[in-house]
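Justification of computing resources. Each target in the renewal requires a structure prediction run like the one illustrated here; the chain below, 203 residues long, is used simply to show the kind of job we budget for.
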Amino acid sequence: MLIIGIAGGTGSGKTTVVHQIMNELPSTEVGVISQDSYYKETNNLTYEERTKINFDHPRAIDFDLLISHLKDLKAGQVIDQPIYSFITHNRTEDTISTHPRKVMIVEGILIFTNPEIRDLFDIKVYVHADSDERLIRRLKRDIAERGRDMEEVITRYQTTLKPMHDQFIEPTKAFADIIIPNDKYNTVAIDVVRAVINQRIEK
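Resulting structure tokens:
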């Protein structure tokens, strides 16, 4: 199994890159796991307490479970991937049954901050985007999909997202094998990653 890690700041366009890489690849051979599914369970906290969690800090991620699941998939086992709700700031009771594939893509802002999970990635891709562009994308997404208002998103960006990006996410660019500047459609970088995947699938 080929495991590809795709990291980058919030709103950098990681999901778009994932879709571009998967385009023209057989869906039966490629699976995707989102770091967002692995935010820690917060059943012991009230809703108000959960809203104060710093979701852009590595300690918010259940890396132990994510690492365990990746190892299980690599060993040919089916996993029950958690489902996380950004409305309630907690995991739901549902899971997704995820089967092993020849290629698994793991995407998330913090996946390169953990040395053990970094070692599981055969290819590490970092998607880079200008900070202004990332803020605009974050605004659009959080207002449209997560029920936030503009002031809430901007305040969170200034107090949490940007400091955490500078401290934890941007430095992990140094671990990347490929850096994709996502201010435009970078066909060369996407084609390189896709070619490596195709080579592995054909083996």
